[in-house]
Specification:
115 residues; mainly beta; seven-stranded mixed sheet; globular
């Protein structure tokens, strides 16, 4: 069955960096747009970034543009999110998502930005 497993989250100080990894299985990874969605405590879901099937097109929410970089390795069925210059407001659960209509979801991983 479809599985998306996130890793790489944790606690980081403001200004620091983290790299999230999403390992996919159970579907043909290279055929789908993949992305990241986050949910801050007490708030709704916020789309963060998309990566096209071939990895050549990236889109970002204004809130992370210039600080986050999405990438993928289709040979390894893996999606990444490099997060730099982290801010308090980046604290959230981050979900790896994919599919034609974002029907594939990971379980989420916590990122906490705190001093």
């Amino acid at each position: 069955q479809v599985q998306l497993v996130e890793s790489g989250g944790g606690l980081v100080q403001p200004g620091g960096s983290l790299r999230l990894t999403c390992t996919a299985s159970g579907f043909i990874f290279r055929r789908y747009v993949m992305g990241w969605v986050r949910q801050a405590p007490g708030k709704g879901l916020e789309w963060v970034s998309n990566n096209s099937e071939d990895g050549n097109t990236e889109t970002y929410a204004d809130s992370v543009n210039g600080r986050f970089t999405i990438s993928r390795d289709n040979s390894a069925n893996t999606l990444y999110l490099q997060m730099n210059s982290l801010k308090f407001e980046d604290t959230a659960s981050y979900f790896c998502v994919g599919g034609n209509w974002y029907e594939f979801w990971g379980q989420g991983i916590q990122v906490t930005v705190s001093s």
